[in-house]
Amino acid sequence: MADGEFKGSVCPHDCPSTCALEVEVRRDADGVARGIGTVRGAEANSYTAGVICAKVARYAERVHHPDRLLKPLLRTGPKGSGQFREIGWEEALDRVAAGFAERTAKHGSETVWPYYYAGTMGLVQRDGIHRLRHAMRYSGQQNTICTALCESGWQAGVGRFGGPDPREMAEADLIVMWGGNPVATQVNVMTHVTRARKSRGAKFVVVDPYRTGTAAAADLHLALRPGTDGALACAVMHIAFRDGHADRDYIARMSDAPPDLEAHLAARGPDWASGITGLPVAQIEAFAKLYGETERAYIRCGYGFSRSRNGAASLHAVTCLPTVTGKWRHLGGGAFWNNRTIYHWDKTLIEGLDVRDPSIRTLDQSRIGAVLTGDRRDLGAGPPVTALLIQSTNPAVVAPASEKVRRGFLRDDLFTVVHEQFMTDTARYADIVLPATMFVEHDDLYQAGGHTHIQLGPKLVEPPGECRSNHEVLQGLATRLGAQHRGFGMTAREIADWTLRASGWPGWDDIAANRWHDAATDFATAHFETGFGHADGKFRFAPDWAAIGEDHAVMPRLPDHMPAIDAASEDHPFRMVTAPARQFLNTTFTETPGSRKREGRPTALIHPRDAARLGIEEGGRVRLGNAQGEVVVTAKLAEGQQEGVVIVESIWPNPDFAGGIGINLLVSDDRGPPKGGAVFHDTAVWVRPAVEQAERLAAE
């Protein structure tokens, strides 16, 4: 193909950066756009600023990958065997519709569960599955696998999802990255950190249980024990009151100002926090002094520290810091997690909200294993799930309690349809596999969680083979199932245009002419000068947890360390964090040669003193286990975490592990309070040398 011109697009993947892209479009001899070349960041976008991650820069590897699914497939062998034969689209859709209709006739409509998530973040292609769900009265989905705990913790104090413009990091004198690794997971944060350091001499602090790429770039790394972030936050507030850095006027004006807040925090000083976090008292004091004395202190809250049974409480405690100290008042000050409130979308057309029946049951996404194995705590009085339509996710690897998930997928009575780009672990369990487009091969609309731009992703090239978009598949099924909704008769671009206009934004063509639309709010709104998101405009130090979720009774009344974690014990002395790998994005990019080469193989980061005590050597194989099972990985000795902490960067496909099942085998599918949420970074395990290594050491 000939080199082509660059066209505007946007990264579709599950990352707050939502980068503005320029994609080289390549045409065949007939002038038809059939492929892509170079992918680069759009320099004109004030947040992307020309910078994108290496994995997306190599996106041509995915688009032109020889293993892409190109035709519909019908299973011919046992479930999980990967044995399929090609069939045509008409036959495939007929079979899917017949399978859903047959099971609905036997069990009722709730027996079908459309299951999806963030393989694409485009609003039309990702969320359109709800339109079919609502029109057909299929079971609903509670999205708990990523953001539920963050949402609860942020909502508890702040009340709405917004905050100081992320570009203000460049105006800060102190940036605290709390529980995130943007070098790997949202690289544009580092662009604005670098600007602040160069122009203002800003300090950069990272709070994270291990020495990530981001922590390695920090002026101060607070390597606390996993699940102890609330204790650190409370100690910093204690010191702020003790040393005169608390803004008492701001607390009185802008918060619920519980009369016992200061007394409560008085018992939670640096000595107390040191015993919980494992951090030296001097380090806690130094961080608290730096934070207290810096007006322009910007806390960028990551997702990682919320993925724990106490994650919501921990995030709430962190949001209390800029409230105690009044940092919200300053340019480059305050805290930020996600901007979703600013877009005020009307998703009636995308999701079919006008035909939604609220009486239909909702099933917890993170507990798919429990659902598929018939747990009545999840199914309630309703029917078993006997049919799945899966788009934009790979639960056989991504979901917690992987062995339970696998047992569910192996059920003979379960009819599974997977719409995918590659033969993933989940697709191997399917009865029918449908080939899916990639982001440059369909139209879509994007919001950004990590900045303020609305962006468009127009179709740039023709899809290979017989790949179809999520929207096209839903249209085909709606016709066969008799699903009635006007959205099924519209193109993806028409739906996007309607949604933009109905939400008060310019239409598709207007935004396309300008490449994006900046939806940023004014300073007073972004910094909550006009009030926080609660009815009285006050920040909540004492949240109404009961209004957030049914499991509210266990939540602390005031900011605190909530000890409800899978704590280390004699039998399981290590706390394990399954952090994201730099070259993967969930299970996306695990198929591309560039990412796999750079990641190497599944690895456990172990402190050298732990390794010496256990007889584990660099590069040796180790077993990690608990009551749910065990996995074997390669050991890498690392001093960037405390003893008793083990890190496994993932998510690798199941076949990359001995035994054929990955790291989420060890992760519980417990619901994090108060309203659910996956607890990926809250796991206690034992660590041992693999048998052959132990035997060799004994012989020596």
TrEMBL record:
Residues 4-67 form the 4Fe-4S Mo/W bis-MGD-type domain. It comes from the Bacteria. SMART domains: Molybdop_Fe4S4. Keywords: Iron, Iron-sulfur, Metal-binding. InterPro entries: Asp_de-COase-like_dom_sf, MoPterin_dinucl-bd_dom, Mopterin_OxRdtase, Mopterin_OxRdtase_4Fe-4S_dom, Prok_Mopterin_Oxidored, YoaE_C. The keyword Iron applies. Belongs to the prokaryotic molybdopterin-containing oxidoreductase family. This is Dehydrogenase. The lineage of its organism: Bacteria, Pseudomonadati, Pseudomonadota, Alphaproteobacteria, Acetobacterales.
